[in-house]
Amino acid sequence: MNNAIGIFAVLIVALSPVPFGSNRPFFWTLWGMLIGLTGLVYFLQATRSFDGLRIPLGRIRIPAVLWLLTALWLVVQVLPIGSFSVVLPNGQAVESATISTAPGATLLMLVRIVSYGLFFVLALEAGARESRAKTMLTAIFWIIVAHAGFSLLQLTQFGDTILGLPKIAYMGVATGTFINRNSFATFLAMGLSVGIALVPGILSAKLARNQSAMDKVLVAFLYAGGLFVITIALLATESRMGLFAGAVGAFVVLLLILKQHERWKILIPAAIVLAVALGLAAIWTFGQGTIERALTLEGSTEGRMALYEQVWNQTMDRPLIGFGGGAFSLYFPAYFGPPLNLNNFWDKAHSTYLALFSELGLVGGALPILAVAVIFGRVVWSQVSSERLSPARLAAVGAILTCAMHSLVDFSLEIQANALLFAVLVALGLAGSIKLQEKR
Fold first, then answer.
1. Which of 49, 177, 424, 438 is close enough to 123 for a disulfide, judged by CB 3.0 to 4.6 Å?
2. Dihedral of the alpha carbons of 11, 14, 18, 23, in degrees to the nearest 10
3. Which intervals hold domain O-antigen ligase-related (predicted)?
4. According to DSSP H, which parts of 84-164 are helical?
C-alpha cells in the first residue's frame, strides 16, 4: 500500500500543474475527491490488515493539531451561529449569519486545507522507508525537469502559448502550464533544491555490479543537465523573487551538504565564490529580462507597499475573526484605491501571510504558518545533528526556505499545484527526521 501511495503522490505532483496549476475550483474539488478516496482506501486497508501506520500521527502531534485547528476554524466560519457585520470604507454595512462573509469560498478553502493535510499524511507514510522516499524524490526531480523543458518549448517553438492556447498575460516569458510566471517560478525553484539534495547520494553510492566510476560521473552530469534546464527555465520566467528565493533555498542545501565534509572550511568559501560566478554568468547569458526587471524594482516595491498597507487596513477591520477563508478577492475591492493603479485587478494579496491574516484573522492565520515552522525546525535540527546526509531532509529544508521567502511577496502557495508539491517534499523530509530519531 505504501508503494502504491508513493506512486499516487508522484502522479499528483506530475499532473496537478497541467491544468493551469490547478488554480480553479473544479480542480480543487477534483484533487480533493481523489485524495480523499485514496486516503479512505488506505486507512481502511491499514485497519483490516492490523498493520497500523508506519508513522503514527502522534509522532507529528504539534503540526497535526495546528492544521486540524485551521480546518476547524474554517468550519466555524461557515456555521450560522449568529449575526455578524462589518462596515466597509464606503460606509456600506455587510450583514451575515456566519463569521465568513463568503461561506461558499470558505467551504472551498476548507476542501483545500483538508486535502493538503491528508495528502501530507499519505506522503509521510510513503516516505517512512528511506529508499522509497529517495525514489519519489528522484521521480519528482525529473518531473520538474520535464515541466521546465516543456515550458521552454512552449516559449520558443510553440508560439509562446499555454498548452496550445493563447496567453492572456506574461507574453515573452516562460509560464509553463501555469497562468502566472511567479507561481511557475516557485515550482521550478523547489526543483533546484531537490536536484542538489540528490547529487551527494549519487556520488557517494557504492558501485553496482558492472558499473564503472565513469558511469557514476555520467549520471552526475545527467543530473547537472537537469539542474541546468530548470535554471534556464527559471531565468526565462523573469521572476525576480522566484529566482532569488530559489537560489537561497538551493544554496542553503548546498551549505548543509558541504558542512558534512571534513574540509568544509575550505569548501564553503570556494562554493560561495563559484556559485556567485556561475549565477552571474547564467543571469548575464540567459536572464537579460530578469536584469531589466531588477532595475525597475524600486517602482514596483512602492506599489507593493501600498498594496500591503491596504490589505492590512482590511485585516484590522476584523483582526480576530477575519473575513472568511477565500473571501479576500470579494472584499478587497472595497479597500482598494490610490496610489495603486486603478486599471489593475487585485484579487490576491501578493503575500500569503497577509492573505491568511485577512481571511482567518491574526490567530487563525498564524496556525498553518506555525505548523510549517515547527516542521522546519525539526527537519533542520535532524539534519545538522546527523552525520548522514538525507536527500529528503535536504530537499524539505530547501523547499520550505524557498516558499517561505517567496510567500512574503507573492501567492505561489495559494496555487494548488505548488501546495501539493510543497506538501510532498515537506512530508518526506519530516518522515526522514522521525525515522532517524527512532533509530537513535
1. 424
2. 80
3. 227-367
4. 103-126, 130-156
